[in-house]
User: What shape does this take?
Amino acid sequence: MGTVKGRIHALETGGMVDGPGIRFVAFLQGCPLRCLYCHNPDSWNFGKGREMSSQELVDEAWKYRTYMKASGGGITLSGGEPLSQPDFVLDVIRKAHEKDMSVAIDTSGYGLLDRVRDCLDEADLIILDIKTALAEKHRELAGVPADRPRRILRYLIQSRKPLWIRHVVVPGLTDRRDNLQALKEILKDIPSLEKFELLPFHKMGEEKWVQEGLQYSLGRTSPPDREFMDRITSEFRNAGIPM
Assistant: This one.
């Protein structure tokens, strides 16, 4: 059987926050988004990273199978934007399944549905980062319009794919009441939603922006305070949204 090659930004073993259990996390190189709060701008360029075949990636993950199996973990394909390498992602999923390893895709949902449908269908879990619930604000925040992510989200809801959803709370951008209310309404209509995470904005990637010669516009933005995060988390939980 042939193998497909992809470009890898980084690999992480023992991941604990990118899906259930202990994860082998592959951060794929290349992303069409330009999120203002991105902490890995060095993953944007599609020409960087190292080349790796799908078989090599699965073989590397296989070394950690004991930990993954015992914890209910598996492989997570993150980025960058993994849906920008759909042929590679699909081949990793299929080769991992041959070895009875589960695969999650951690994505912004930015892809052409016709190109990424098989990836979405065959992955065991989709971890979707909703940048903003206000479609008209999506380009301002992420550098691209919301049409593709919204179409992907609608497809995942219709197909009842197991979903984790994440949302980064950025003061002055995504902490607005209208955004949070719209997000709550979206989440209430997803029957296959298993977990929702509100993540506080941080500036740990600021140094990478400088190294990449990029202007970081959120240098004076502080993380949201704990009291605010606790309050909105309670609001979502009280609305029946799994946290």
Summary: The first helix runs from residue 54 to 62.
